[in-house]
Amino acid sequence: MATQTRTTQGAPPPGGVSFSLSDPTFRSIVYQILVVGAVIAVGWFLIHNTLDNLARRSIATGYDFLGREASFGIGESLIDYSPRDTYGRAFLVGVLNTLKVSVIGIILATIIGTVVGVARLSSNWLIAKLASTYVEIIRNIPPLLQLFFWYALVSDSMPPVRQALNPLPGVFLSQRGLRVPVPAPDPVWTTMGIALVVGIAAAWGVSRWARARQARTGQPFPAGWAGLGLIIGLPILTWLAGGAPLAMDVPKLAGFNFTGGAAISPEFFAILTGLTVYTAAFIAEVVRSGIKAVNWGQTEAARALGLPGGPTLRLVILPQALRVIVPPLTSQYLNLMKNSSLALAIGYPDLVSIANTTLNQTGQAIEGVTMIMGTYLVISLSISIFMNWYNKRIALVER
Amino acid sequence: MKTGFLATAAAAVVVTASVAAGAATLDTVKQRGFVQCGVNAGLPGFGNPDSAGNWTGLDVDYCRAVAVAIFNDPNKVKFTPLSAQQRFPAIQSGEVDLLSRNTTATLTRDTSVGLNFAPVTYYDGQGFMVTKKLGVKSAKELNGATVCVQSGTTTELNLADYFRSNNMSYNPVVIESNDEVNAAYFAGRCDVLTTDMSGLAGTRAGVAPVPDDHVILPEVISKEPLAPAVRHGDDQWFDIVKWTVYATIQAEEFGINSKNIDEFGNSQNPDIQRFLGTSPGMGKALGLDEKWAYNVVKKIGNYGEIFDRNVGPGTPLKLERGLNALWTKGGLMYAEPFR
Prior knowledge:
Chain A: This is General L-amino acid transport system permease protein. The structure holds 2 protein chains of 2 kinds. Helices cover 64% and strands 6% of the residues of chain A. Among the domains of chain A are: 22-58; 87-161 and 266-394, MetI-like (MetI-like fold, Orthogonal Bundle). In chain A, 32% of the residues are buried. Chain A starts with 23 loop residues before the first helix and ends in a 5-residue tail after the last helix. In chain A, helix 7 packs across helix 9 (309-339). Chain A is an alpha+beta fold. Chain A has a 4-stranded antiparallel sheet. Chain A has a two-stranded antiparallel sheet with strand order 4-5. In chain B, strand 9, helix 6 and strand 10 form a beta-alpha-beta unit. In chain B, helix 3 packs across helix 9 (235-254) and helix 3 (58-71) packs antiparallel against helix 12. Chain B is globular, with a radius of gyration of 21 Å. Chains A and B meet through helix 1, helix 4, helix 10 and helix 11 of A and helix 1, helix 4, helix 6, strand 10 and helix 7 of B.
C-alpha cells in the first residue's frame, strides 16, 4: 500500500483512503470508532461497577423474583389477581392497567382535541374564545396538579358511600366512584361480540366494493349507511335470536361498599380525565395547525368543481391536513401514555406503581427499573410504528 | 439496546455507590463533617419537622445520637426525608449513611435488600383505624372494606395476609406518599387506614381534623420491630449505630439520664466506669472518643427520655411503654453488656 507512505499534504488517490488524519474520510472513521469505543467502555464500566457493588453488598440480582408470590393486593385489575399470584402476574396487571388508561385516553383525547381544535377556528366568537381559553389554561398547568385536582374533586365533592347519589335507577355516584348496572352474564353476549366483529368486517368489505364500483362505473353507493346497519344490526339480530335477555346486574350497598355492577374508581376517573383533558389541549393545537396548513385555495377549487361541503372536507382538506397533523399527534399519544406513570401519585395501580411496590418488597431496584423502562419502550415503539405506518398510508401520492 | 438502558438504570446507583464503597463510612462521615440520615418526611413522634423547621421524633433522635457519638454535637446531622419507596435505594446507593425511618426489620430486607439492622428502637405492630361513625368494634368486621395503605411497606403485605387468613376480602387504595394516603382516608375515600399502631396514633393526633372521630381497633395483626439500618459491608459503622442504640437502653437500666449523668462521674461501679469512659477501652474499640456514651446520654438522653419526649403519655401520641419498657420492667428493651 503506497498510500501509507504519502506525506500529510498529499491528496488521497481517487477511490482510496489515506491513513492520515488530514484525510477527511479516514478522520471521520477514526472519530466514529473513538466515539463508539467510548460509549462501549462507559457502558461496560457502569455495568461492571454495578454488578460489583451489588455483589459486595450481597444484594440479590436477577429476575427470579418474578416467579415468587407477590402477597400484596391490587385495587383494580382487568384479569383475575389475588395476593397469592406471582410478582410477574402483578406486573402484568400493572401493564394492562396502563394500557387501559392509555388506549381510552388516546381515543377520548383525539375526539376532544379535534372538536376543540376545529372550534378554535370557528367564526363564532364565543366558541372560538372558549376553545382558546381551554387550551391556554390547561396546557399551562402541570399535569400532576391537574390529577390532584380531579382526584380531590371526587373525594371532596362527592357524598360518602352510604349517602351515594342515585341519579338514575341503579346508578350510584359517591366518593368510591361510579357504580353502574351491567347486563347479567349470559352466553348471548359472547355471540353478540362475534356478531359485532363480523359486522365490522362486512362493513369494511362493502365500503371497498362500493369504492371499486364507483371508480369503475361512477355510481356512488351509500356504503356508510350500509356499514352502520351491518355493525349495529347484526349484534341486535343475534341478541333477539338469543332470546333477548334483559336481566341486569344492579349494584347494591352491602356492608362497606357497593357490590355488583361495574365500577369506575375515583383513581381511574382522575387519571383518565386528567390525561385526556391535558393531552386534548395539545391535540387541539395540532389539529388547528393542520387545518390552517391547507391553503384556502384548495377549498375554493373543490367548490368550483362542484363538490359539496362534506366531501370537500373528507376528500380535499383532511388528506392534506393529516399529513401535517399525524407526526406531532404521534408525540402527543406517546406523551399521554408516558404521563400515565403519574398515576402513582393518586393511587391508580399502573405499571410504575406496581413495579415500584415490587422493587421495594424485593429490594431489586435495578431489575424493577429495567422492566419499567423496557415496557414503556415497547409500548412507545408500538405506537410509533403504527403511527408511522398510518402516516405513510395517508402521505400525499404525487403524480 | 438492552445493555444501553440497563446502564442508564444502573448509573444513578453506581455513580454514588462507587464513591461510598471506596472508603469506610466512619472516615467519610468524619471528613464530610456530618451524618446524612434518612428519615420519615412527616410522621409525628418519629420523624417530622416542627413548626420552626427543626426535625423532631424518636427516629430523628437516633440520627442525632449517632452524630453525638462521633462529633459530640447533635446538630452535625443532615436529614433526607424519604418515602417508603425511596428509602431502600437511598441507603443502598450511599445517599444516606443511616436509615432511621420507622423501618421494620425483616429477613428479606436483612438479606436480599442488603441491610443490617441495628437493635430495635420501637416494638410496634400493625393496626387499623376507622371512623367512629362506622360502628366497627373489631378488625374481624372489616370484610369488604376499602383500605388506604402506603405502598412499599410491610403493612401492604400484612394487610393482604390478614384478610386472606381470615377469609375476608378488601379493596386496597395504594398511594405512594404518606400525606396523600392520610388525605384519602380523611376525605372518606377509604373506610380503613392501616399502618403501625404508633403511626396511627401519630396520624390521629397530628393529622386528623377531629381526632375523636376516629378509633384505633384493638387488633394488632403483625410484629413490627422498627430499627435503624445501615448498608451491608461496613462492620465498624454497623457497630457504632448498634452500640449507640444500646447506650441509650443501658443508660436507662443504670438509672442514668441526661440530668443526673454527672453525678455518676465518681461511681465506683466498674460497669458504669466502662460505660462512661472513665475507665477506657470501649470507645477505642468502636473507633470513637472514650466519652461517646457519656455524650450520647448527656446530649440526647436515655431511652426512656427519648421515648417520653417524642411519643410518651405527655405527647399528643399518648403511647404507653408496653413492649418498649426495659426488660427489667416486663418489656423487651435489653442492651448487650458494655464490656
